[in-house]
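Q: What residues go here?
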């Protein structure tokens, strides 16, 4: 089986030197402007936040009531929403209002947490997710799993910039990653399992309610993280973050060791495997399975194939 076609991810061109992340063309100028609202934020930071919040979907609505492309709560919108396009109304569903409003709110947050120790960027992002009060209370990013993962995810997106990248994985590194993954074939799947050192017990719980707490093994991104750690490349923890730490390759350039990503968009990537050639990959598919060979078309939402890039990843 040979799979030669997939959706090339992030087909939009970066806009200028200030915005080096790929974002939809319709929002590039808005993000450039709003990302320069104050010195404490940047277009790349705002683009990463919007990717994490909504995947640039202006119709997004969360179960908690957050609305629009910037996922602002009604109370927050009432205070910080602006009429960005000058049409006489503030519309949370209109990106021409919502994106400038996100910049306005981030700058207000920056002032609220300016005296909190630690990384300014981490504190701003944590405050957008959990509120400035929580960041002030805990003297930095609060000990909430959701908020800590939120900050890590956006930092991974912001860090994945063409001008800030290192070298792509060499052929030798890619082969080391493939050989490492092969050595784990038959290891049980564990939700949240796996790290740079190898298999580990996981966490609770998967979307279907499965726990990895009692299982020593790997989930999909734990396996790829371990494989590339053996090759000397440090990857972020989740599949979506690993995509941002890699460079997409064209179908004709795919080689063993490249990472195969699945999802409807960069923000919704949910699975990753390691390509081994001939349309096959090694992956940890799902709870109840083991690390194995799988065909690339085993899932219907193949999004991209990308090559990992050496980079330094900092923990929160």
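A:
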């Amino acid at each position: 089986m040979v799979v030669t076609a997939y959706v090339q991810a992030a087909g939009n061109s970066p806009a200028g030197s200030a915005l080096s992340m790929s974002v939809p063309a319709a929002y590039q100028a808005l993000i450039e402007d709003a990302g320069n609202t104050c010195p404490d934020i940047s277009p790349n930071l705002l683009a990463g936040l919007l990717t994490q919040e909504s995947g640039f979907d202006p119709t997004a609505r969360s179960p908690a009531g957050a609305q629009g492309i910037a996922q602002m709560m009604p109370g927050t919108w009432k205070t910080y929403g602006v009429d960005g396009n000058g049409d006489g109304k503030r519309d949370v569903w209109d990106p021409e209002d919502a994106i400038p409003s996100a910049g306005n709110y981030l700058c207000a947050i920056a002032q609220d947490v300016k005296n909190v120790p630690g990384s300014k960027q981490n504190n701003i992002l944590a405050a957008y997710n959990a509120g400035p009060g929580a960041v002030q209370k805990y003297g930095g990013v609060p000990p909430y799993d959701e908020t800590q993962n939120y900050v890590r995810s956006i930092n991974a997106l912001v860090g994945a910039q063409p001008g800030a990248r290192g070298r792509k994985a060499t052929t030798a590194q890619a082969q080391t990653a493939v050989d490492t993954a092969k050595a784990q074939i038959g290891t049980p799947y564990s939700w949240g399992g796996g790290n740079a050192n190898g298999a580990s017990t996981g966490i609770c719980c998967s979307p279907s309610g499965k726990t990895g707490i009692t299982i020593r093994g790997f989930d999909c991104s734990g396996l790829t993280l371990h494989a590339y750690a053996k090759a000397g490349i440090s990857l972020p923890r989740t599949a979506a973050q690993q995509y941002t730490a890699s460079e997409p390759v064209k179908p004709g350039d795919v080689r063993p060791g490249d990472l195969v990503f699945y999802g409807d968009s960069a923000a919704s990537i949910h699975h990753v495997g390691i390509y081994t050639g001939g349309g096959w990959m090694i992956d940890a598919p799902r709870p109840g399975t083991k690390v194995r060979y799988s065909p690339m078309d085993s899932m219907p939402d193949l999004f991209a194939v990308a090559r990992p890039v050496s980079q330094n990843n900092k923990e929160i």
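A: Context that may help when evaluating the design: The mean pLDDT is 87. The first helix runs from residue 25 to 34.
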